[in-house]
Amino acid sequence: MKNIKYILFLSIAIITAGCAGFLDEVPKNSISPVNFYKTGQDAISAVNGAYAALRVNDYYSRYWMTSSSLASDGTYSRLGTTSDRGVIIHLSDAGMVVSNRYNIAIWSAVWQAVNRANAVLDNVPNIEMDETLKARILGEAKFLRALTYFNMVRRWGGVPLILNETNTSDISALQVSRNSADEVYSQIVKDLTEAVSVLPNISSYGNEDIGRASKEAAQGLLAKVQLYLKDWNNAKTNALAVINSPSNLDLMPDPKDNWWTGNGNVDNNVESIFEVQYNGVSPQGHQLGNNFEPNASGYGPGQWGTIIGSLWWYNQFEDKDKRKEATWLTEYPAPSGDSLIQWHEFRFPVPHVNKYRDPQNKVSDGMAYNIKVLRFADVLLTAAEAINESEGPGGAYEYVNRVRRRAGLDDLASLSKEQLRDSIYLEFRKELCFEGQDYEELVRQGNLLKNKAAYSVYTIPPMYDDNGNVFTPPASLIATIKSRQPVLDNYELNEWNTVFPLPQTALDRNPKLTQNQGYP
Amino acid sequence: MGSSINISRSINNAAETEGEATNSITATALQMSPILPVFLPDGTYSCNRFLPAAVPDAQGSRNPMAFINEFSDQSVNTRVLTSLFGEYDITENLKLKVSVGADLENRDRHVYRTSKFDNINPLNSADVSSVDRTSLLNENTLNYNKKFGKYGLQVLAGYTVQKETEEYRSIGGRGFATDITGPYDLGAGSVVPSVNSLYADFRILSTLGRVNYNFDDRYLLTVTGRRDGSSKFAAGNKYAFFPSVGAAWRISNESFLQGSSILSNLKLRAGWGQVGNQELPTYRSLALLQSDPYNFGNGTIVNGFSPLRVAVPDLTWEITSQTNIGIDASILQGRFNATFDYYIKKTKDLLLEVSLPETSGILDPSVQNLGEMENIGWELAMDGTMIRARDLRWKLGFNISQNRNTITSLGKPSEVGSGDQSYLIAQPTFAGSTPRSYVTVGESVGVFYGYKTDGLYRSQAEADNGQQLQPGVLPGMIRYVDVNGDGVLNSADRTIIGNPHPDFIFGINSSLDYKNFQLRLFAQGQEGGQIYNSMRRFNSTVTRGQNVIAERADYWTPQNTDAVWPTPIQTPPNVGGTGNMGESDFFLEDASYLRMREITLTYNFPQDFLGKLGGSIYVTGQNLFTLTGYSGYNPDTNGRSNVRGSFGWDISTYPLAKTTLIGVKLDF
To answer: How far apart are CA A86 and CA A104, in angstroms?
Structure first.
């Protein structure tokens, strides 16, 4: 009898306790916007999250980079076009590409990046904090938003211009229409111009902040945007401002120093302007290199070898061009360590991509080298092109030749404006090859349709054995190599292929989006 | 007063048996090229990528034997169920009952992959995780029970409180110097370990009441009402009231039927009631941030926080209102019995997990109350003793039921009007490789959505005529249907291509006794409904050097024009190439089946055979055979049962085990 009283008492206690706020949800393992965006540290964390949006697999870690090179003349997928792991960015097959997994994944990742930048821009202004730091953070967010919109507008044309954080789950309110490419470009220029005015120079960032968006990054990207807009005078002004910036940017001595030289200075070096930062610790590591490691080679953690080089593009590099070695993997040490495997001995006997290799790394998601978004060589070429277009060749040589000299090539001289333009175009392609703008540059230069056709004409480059002696290939090897070249029939392109289609899933989720012309 | 405690501990060794592509024993066993040995000369496991280079896209680094030998997954589950309750008779007819129960569960899981597991990368890895789940329940009821002559009255009022918390932590280590320590030396890995943790909790408060009224065992009435509150819903929308009323008339107890020699029981039932559903993950009504660290400069990791989800401020209960009528009848003192029920269930504020438009930048699916659904169906069960002789007795039972599910509305009332709203169920499917589970008005939830096929282009002439619709199509390729008839094959031609829900499900059981022998049978099945054979899709893909199913050899060639399968030629025309084959009805199959769930033959020992002991000896066969046209292992499977609204997916399902048991039973 005594016990029952206790139970009754306990029960009543529970009932009483239950009344006030018993059903309120207070998540313990994540924070809510209600108690965030209060301090300067919150502002920093918010903008850090916006940087982290660049780092994901579906954006710079893999899909943005590989899709750009696969849609160009530089590489192709060794996998069957219909295998769903191997669906390449196969622009001529419009039906395929609307359901392309890379295209779908990138379309989500870029919008996540935009929303995160918007979250900073909407919430940080209301925080009471150091005003200089606040201005810098807002500048960083504007840079990040502009970078992603620039990527989007080049890839899909006009996209919805969303400038505020998403704060509703009402699906019909989220179904927005596309803006024009011009409107998107205007916003990019506006964001970058504002970012230039508030961001500090690279050299004024302390060690712990290297890698944040800087004045040079915003100015360099703006110059590049202005190349796309053919706004030559402003492109020139901005590019020269970067070249002459107090941060003393320069080229690294050798092209390969930016990739895998092993001198410990690959990341955030004197040539770097903006890089997506990785440190090799999952998820702070990237996966890009796996795609390019020769298949089943014992060389590197992934060895997928899914993306292999086109001989046509490989042949465009002169032998003395130091970028040939920096760009192309033509041999690697055998797992036993006592010999080198030459490209014609690879499982897929064509040169592979050499940038992004990280053979010392053990885990496929732990590649530590940063991914370069903008580097000094890019800005030099931007300056050269802008000057050539606005004033003619005279003042432009200095900048393009600086890039060529580093590559071990002779200076350009005495060219017509048109000849220099073509030369600069080619320098852009070779210097920035496989750096996430192959397709974009081809389209800008008006060469997408021309170069894809050039695939049909290629020669098989000379082959050497481990001792450097000439190797005479048997007919069967030549046949294998030829069978590894892309089928030209699959690469018939049309004018509308200068942008990608919107993925079908995007159209399914939002009927207000219209498909790009030409695509079903 | 009373209390109980129940402690259990179980150890479970699991194997990866389900999963598409290269992620399970089943899938890899089917896809492993038959021309490869299990082991390479150096003792490592072979895999498809070691095929001769003539297979250009040979792919796959897993070997099914490696899954068995080099992979372990052990879970140890410890569970303590306790309850303490007290009853107090306040008056003769009024009872108070209070109970407090706790369900405490801990699950430790150790997953380990040795350095031989993956043939590309000899990196061994371990994932160790632990889940603690605590569920506390307090129930307090007052029960009043009284008979007044022919009337009986029962009244119950109560109040219950439930709280459940779940905490999860995991550590992943990789790159151990040796496999000897397995998952027990996580700090020794050469790769920085990954650490993860989760926490979730929810609470439910209920007030409830029930009145049972009984007049002379002829008229029965039950009225209930309960008000439930769940923490999972949005502020202001946490509570809902669920009433119900049920009445029954036992006609057989009426005086005009009393003493009927045939009818032994006849009862009419009718009822109406509402129930609520709160099965959704926690915190889904709230806007949340996610942690996403980054690193600058020297590689130092810095905190980052970003939007994960936006608030769903009107998230509330999914409520189903059910109206049903039924009849129970027995004749000849219960020798033959039948029960029939008919119901109409209307569900509103359906809880669906949907993906927001990508432009929102919110990638996490959103759980929302979207739309209304109707289920109309009936159930019939009959059983009878067919033979009732001295040595021979045969009982036969049969049940059949039908349910029709229809989405009657989608979208919140303010938005409906556009009329053609529909949603793709959020699911881990790569577009273009399978149809989608789809929700649209007028159809059942989770119908399949994709392209319709119409055989193959069987000749050059047919292919020539098909160029307009499928530019570049070659003879031997799949012919797709231009559903909207606009002369162009594109994504607008996707349509509802199948329904995963059966027309009927049924069961049969029979029990035959002859002297000391007993033969029992239990069979079960369904008629209608479709299943997407994703395994068949994967195992008929002529790429990657993988094995394909034997029937794939019956593909179109100029000599074999009536083939079932398309040509393996890979050149894809626009929409409708082999690439879209997966997204079509090509791999949808009829899921009708009849399965012999159990056959048992028992021999009961005669009395005195074993002295005072009684006993029997029996042979049981389970799942001995399944009659079905389905080409996969099991037509009764759903590999995506964890996704709301996804039905009928066969994703490399592990085959159902056939079991034969012989047993002896002794009664002391």
So the answer is: 14
* CA–CA separation, B437 and B450 (whole Å): 9
CATH code at position A131? 1.25.40.390
Residue A150 is assigned to a structural domain of this protein = yes
The two structure tokens encoding residue A350: 């064509």
Best residue of A169, A297, A361 to probe chain B, by most B CBs closer than 10 Å: A169
Place of tokens 């509305």: B409
Is A296 contained in some domain? no
Strand B318-331 with B351-354, pairing: unpaired
**Tell me, what's the ipTM?**
0.90
Assigned domain for A254 exists: no
Average pLDDT along chain A, 520 residues, taken 10 residues at a time = 55 55 83 89 96 94 88 76 41 54 88 98 96 97 98 96 94 92 98 98 93 97 98 97 96 91 81 92 79 83 83 92 94 84 89 86 81 97 98 95 96 96 96 94 87 72 84 86 68 76 84 85
Whether chain A has a CB inside 8 Å of the CB on B303: the answer is yes
A276, A371 Cβ separation under 8 angstroms: yes
Task: For residue A329, list its beta bridge partners.
Answer: A352
Helices (H) and strands (E) in chain A, counts: 19, 8
* Pairing mode, strands B392-409 and B447-450: unpaired
Chain A residues whose CB is inside 8 A of the B310 CB are 166-169
Q: Report the distance separating Cα B516 and Cα B604, nearest Å.
A: 5
Burial state string for B21-39 with b = 16 or more CB within 10 A and e = fewer than 16: bbebbbbbebbbbeebeee
- Count CB neighbours of B9 within 10 A: 10
Residue B330 three-state SS? strand
- Tens of pLDDT, residue by residue over B233-288, are 999 999 999 999 999 998 888 877 777 778 888 899 999 999 999 988 899 999 99
A465 domain residue, yes or no: no
SS3 B110: strand
DSSP state of A209: G
The total of structural domains in chain A comes to 1
Contacts of B183 by beta carbon, 8 Å cutoff, 6+ apart: B110, B111, B112, B126, B127, B128, B173
Q: Which among A266, A42, A247, A55 is positioned nearest to A144, based on CA atoms?
A: A55
């996403």: which residue's tokens?
B292
Which of A3, A33, A111 is closest, CB to CB, to B361? A111
Nearest to A50 among B98, B306, B310 (CB): B306
The answer to whether the bond into B313 is cis (omega within 30° of 0) is: no
Q: In this complex, is the C-beta atom of A484 within 8 Å of any C-beta atom belonging to chain B?
A: yes
User: Residue A411 CB: number of other CB atoms within 10 A?
Assistant: 11
Q: Identify the CA nearest to B322 among candidates B267, B370, B379.
A: B379
Pairwise CA distance, residues B232 & B202, whole Å: 6
Give 3-state DSSP helix, strand, coil % of chain B, rounded to 5.
10, 55, 40
- Residues in chain B closer than 8 A to A168 (CB atoms): 310
Label the pairing between strands B649-650 and B530-533: parallel
The boundaries of the domain holding residue A81 are: 37-168+494-520
- What are the E-state strand segments in B315-435? 318-331, 336-348, 351-354, 366-369, 372-388, 392-409, 422-424
CB contact under 8 A, B431 and A14: no
Q: Which residue has the tokens 């939007």?
A: B307
Distant-in-sequence, close-in-space partners of A452: CB < 8 Å, separation ≥ 6: A73, A491, A492, A493
pTM over cut 0.80: yes
Write the residue in A119, A209, A505 that is nearest to B297 by C-beta: A209
Say which of B50, B201, B574 has its CB closest to residue A94: B574
Instruction: Please compute, for residue A390, the number of CA atoms within 13 A of its CA located in the half-sphere on the CB side.
Output: 17
